[in-house]
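Researcher: Batch entry, complex prediction.
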Amino acid sequence: MSHAQRGLDEGSPEQVGFSRDRLQRLTDELRGEVETGQLPGATMLIARHGKIAYFEAVGYRDKAAKSPMTKDAIFRIYSMSKPITTVAAMILVEQGKLLLENPVAAYLPQFAEARVGIPRPGMMAGMPPVMDLIPCGRPMTVQDLMRHTSGLTYGFFDTAISKLYRDANFFGADLTNAEFVEALAKLPLAFQPGAGWNYSHATDVLGHVVEMVSGKSLYDWEQAHILEPLGMSDTSFCIADKAKHGRVAEPAPPDHLVGGAPPYDPRQTLKSQMGGQGMQSTALDYARFLQTLLNGGALEGKRVLGPETVAYMTADHLGHDIGPGPTWYIPGPGYGFGLGFAVRRTAGEAVHAGSVGNFHWSGAAGTLFWCDPRRDFFAVLMVQASMQLFRLESKLRNMVYAALVEPEK
Amino acid sequence: MRYMMRAGLGVLLVLGFIGSALAQELGYAEPEELGFSKDRLARITDTLKADVDHHVIPGAALIIARHGKIAYFDTVGWLDPDKKIPMPSDGIFRLFSMSKAITSVAAMILVEEGKLFLNDPIAKYLPQFGHVKVLSATKADPHAVGGDTGNPALVAPNRPPTIQDLLRHTAGLTYGFWGDPVAKMYRDNGLFGGDYDNAEFVTRIAKLPLAFQPGTVWNYSNGTDVLGRVVEVVSGKSLYRFEKENILDPLGMTDTGFYVTDPAKKIRIAQGLDTDSKVFGFPLFNPTIAGKWEAGGQGMEGTAIDYARFLQMLLYGGKLDGHRILSPETVKLMTADHLGKIGPSTNLYLPGPGTGFGLGFAVRRSEGVATIAGSPGNYFWGGAAGTQFWNDPKLDMLVVFMVQAPNQGPHYAALLPNMVYAALTEPEK
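Model: Structure tokens for the complex:
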């Protein structure tokens, strides 16, 4: 049976194996989080076999303005931009225009001279880091960008290279992808390409690879090949339509900062189209994206990727040889990493319930999703509450799997 | 129908004459019936045509078949770019290392007949290897006693190299184009001078040391040429005669052999572009000049449809058109990973990440890690002139790509899987 024609339709919990009562426990829990002030508000959507089993909005869209959460609220999805950017790149791979084994420098010559920075031991406190720059054992590849094994890092880690990123203010500046890559490529790599998994700006770099190969801006490419065909009309890098401005969900104190600063205003027109962090979306838009992946790359007959490409993306790409890098291994125990997603390797070991082959990611403002290809369902949570992310992730997974009482359905 | 027309009249006539049994095996079907998107297959043709227009390749032939039926058979560009002869469906291509899979099947036929054992030392059949030594100072050798910078020393092998080692490139042999010290000896010691046969070749190569301890590393090598001589010694026939009787004739691979001497076939030999006509610095050899050497590792020529028939035989578990070549269990043994924990040598690991090596084929170990789309269990190889093939047993699919563009091999080895899997929109079909 082909799922290419499948869309995302109204359904009932029982129809697709969920217990209505147990899903109600989920709603009660989210409402409780609102009442205790841990979440300002949230939308959550669960769909199975292409049918929506659960779609709720709780709490406030803007707590300060006392406006209630609506199902069409628009959320900053931060790193949940990454899967969209990675799909954009895989479309070019399918077209024969991009090869994963190619050095990134084949598309972005700025990286041709990339060096790995090794902080010299014995550095005195307060002194600027002294760094030896050594050649790469092998060049960083497009595949490295997609699975975070490139040697790049982020500015929020406690390492000498990460500090160089912080000083460059990549999160605060409004840069085009070309400007960003130009600045980033001047900084040393944090480790040898392929030597470990390390969360990083790699997907921002990948966004510029998409631009260079396609000849279009990242947004234009994504709009033409993903967002428009899939009907993701509320997903963008900045919200141009003023009529939508009132739908932006806002965080609330005490959890009103993202990465130590107030979140950006998505209503502003920015140059920045960062593929690793720059998008806004709604629960339903993102659900359509996830349903496309579960369908093997097509929604309602609109094909974005072939099913074998989706299977390849959502396979573990770290294998036996690539372990955690110099900083936090965010995928967590029991998980590897594919092309744009963490991928569950084992039924056990992970700290929450789920199937082998599950793929997932989340965003810095607390949004999260996972897809379970074995059980043919996904869940997406939209919130703007940065500090709650990892606590919510485990809690929601446990509660959603608890509600899937007839998984064989 | 459109694809059948493009396939060329010759192929159709052959199919028609041989009868209904054959018509079912590697006949034609609509791409959609086999799970392919016609539009997405057309993107492959467009890409290849653009590559011809940009002088990246002279011309090419590509076959994609699934469930025993051809979903796609197209040709682009020129058979001979200088003479502007268009590529026909039955162009004859230098297969180079795609000969290895055929030679490996030949050896496995003897294994099935109880005449050859994988764990036999090579020296049991080729006594020249009885006193072979290992050059110990090579960097990749984990058992090196001479050290990286010490004087090269000849040491006895830890264990004798075996038939299995030849099949999976772990014998310790090397190729002259690599960078290890023994490779230089291959280049400098007249291994390839004059007109020699397999017996003479083996005598020459056995005088040189092994580059690595047997069984310790995968190192691409002349191992399959040595294997060809083993086939000759065990069967009592020349490699070509044995293959003709046991593989090529039963499978109807009438255009596959070591030299092209039939005048009617000579005009079907594909040629390279002037800008890309050298393999390791040597011009593409002229297969119309018949020599003595029947090199099992590199010496054959063939057509896309011939090789597709060979691949279909393997996908069918060793049988095509009622002709049993190997048993399904033997094919499984050949296409399983045989490296286990054996890793790469210091030379290039051609199978690539996520991939091991079986008996004559690279074998994909995992869905991810590899840099191309594909199923675990896929087995594949290519030739130095850019030809490629892979079988996907999980999805029951074969792909063979024929081209004479030595510098383009790695590019198409990645591009074709990406685009073919992109076109397989209904893999469950």
